[in-house]
Amino acid sequence: xxxxxxxxxxxxxxxxxxxxxxxxxxxxxxxxxxxxxxxxxxxxxxxxxxxxxxxxxxxxxxxxxxxx
Length: 68
Fold this sequence. Notes:
two-stranded antiparallel sheet
């Protein structure tokens, strides 16, 4: 009986820790906008659209990120 309680506590702790990590990752992903250099955009397979509104990287790994 005691082992079941300990096991349940361990599982509950792990589940809550997992939710905390998921929340932290979501908050980081929604944080400040990300900037990449034109060369990083090209290396990631994209094209820096620096003459268009917003100066974004089109395509590749950094698609949609602002080029600085």
